[in-house]
User: What shape does this take?
Amino acid sequence: MSKYYNPHRTRNLYDPKSSEPFKLSRSRIEQFLNCAKCFYLDRRLGVARPSGFPFNLNTAVDTLLKKEFDIHRAKNKAHPMMKEYGLDLIPFQHEMMDEWRENFKGVQYHHKPTNFIITGAVDDIWSDAKEMLYVVDYKATSKDKEIKALDEDWQGGYKRQMEIYQWLLRKNKFKVSDTGYFVYCNGRTDLEAFDGKLEFDINIIPYKGSDKWINKTLKDVYTCLQSNKIPKTGEDCEYCMYREAVESVM
Assistant: This one.
């Protein structure tokens, strides 16, 4: 058995009889929306999906962007990219910024109707002169065409991700704009040579979010976890399809 993947764990499971708050990350909420069965097997029964390979290049881009914007955050000045896009904003300074970015911590809120502690680790937050906050998410990919909009079906998860961050900050008593920004880095493949470096075209893509779906979704998650019945297979869930295919030939 791999030391990196335990297919059956006994920790961090939801207990319907417990009065202790249950921590629920933004990514687990997205998993529920994609496939309630996989979510239930993971959070209630302790059988998680196999973990994918880490996107180390994406992580490297995130890390470098954070360092770059932090230089301007320390100076309380706008990044040149903000000026290029006509954004009268600066990187937001706050004593909790490092924790808000940290996985397994992030921005947190205790949702009392479900007794969930909702968490989400932001990439960045910008602010204007009126202390209105703007959630920022970094994305890295390599596509042939220039990325100027989030108009693909699979990018719906990106939008929900930003909306949860906006909701979490509002629940922590901050003024948060409906408009957030994706800093989208697209790796170039049209250059003559690699020369030991990867170059990116970078676009800032605005997105107007709505968090109206979140409360209902949390109630649905709560109902799912309270039940002793495993949900139906998620539509187009490749993990469920694989399990069913294996069972059919056993």
User: Anything to note?
Assistant: The chain has one domain: 22-249. Helices lie at 26-34, 36-43, 56-75, 80-84, 97-101, 156-171, 214-226, 238-249. The domain at 22-249 is CATH 3.90.320 (Lambda Exonuclease; Chain A).
